[in-house]
Amino acid sequence: MPVPHQITSLLEDTGGAPLPARIGATPPGRLGRYEIVSEIGRGAMGVVYRARDPVINREVALKTIPLAAEFDGRELEEARAKFFREAETAGRLSHPHIVTIYDAGEQGGTAYIAMELLRGRHLVEYAAAAGLLPPAIAIEVTARLADALHYAHQQGVVHRDVKPANVMFDPPSGELKITDFGIARLTDSGRTRTGLVLGTPSFMSPEQLQGRAVTGRTDLFSLAVTLFQLLTGQLPFRADSMPALMFKIAHDAPPPIAVVRPGLPAGLQSFFERALAKEPADRHASGAEFAEALRRLNTPGRD
After folding, report:
1. What is d(CA 258, CA 236) in angstroms, rounded to the nearest whole number?
2. At 269, is the pLDDT very low, low, confident or very high (cuts 50, 70, 90)?
3. Which of 21, 179, 197, 199 is closest to 98 using CA atoms?
């Protein structure tokens, strides 16, 4: 959906330098047929490299997952099968705001996914108090992400780990992409060697933390947490320990957003009351409905 003219102007004013490469261990020279150029990021699951596909001379982002370091024996075989199944599912998604997957493979116990090389920064850069986007932009960006999730959910794909770190945004061009579809499912039943379940509890829904069924409405809860942070620079649920955080997410209401940041559209309070409802059935029914509710807030005088 085209960005309204006034939103485009605001986007052009916010900047958007590329993410700097991070210094780490010497990267491998090649993974599969891909020639490694440099490291561009690290996360809980592994390293992301800038790489080149020599067959068609295309630069890609190569996300690596050290399966052999996290699993062994039967668990390794199950994780490998799940990885390729989820990579295939993610590779079938085709949407302007979902990163394109080109290929997947494994070498020496390291699985990798080749995807389009994106411009911009992780949305985390705009979730801190010092770097917040204008509210109209944060709302429109979130509406677009809801559009993308609606499309994925219609294909039967639930992301399961929606958060700013899994979104890339380039304000000058307006390019916006959700990444890491399928990666969270890979780790759902697996644990690291330290015994910690991978994931980001601050963005998880009550049902996700409680091990209940996960649906598209789970993603929308996480997206609402993301929007709250983009608008205020803080998370709606905060605590000093994991048990206390889990309790707050499951039982407590977030602080009124007008108290956290005065001057935002008045309708945001009722939006968050629904979007962050504890029971999935009480939330927006779909990403399309979620997006429509947000766009009404961005259009003064609209019913």
Report:
1. 12
2. very high
3. 179
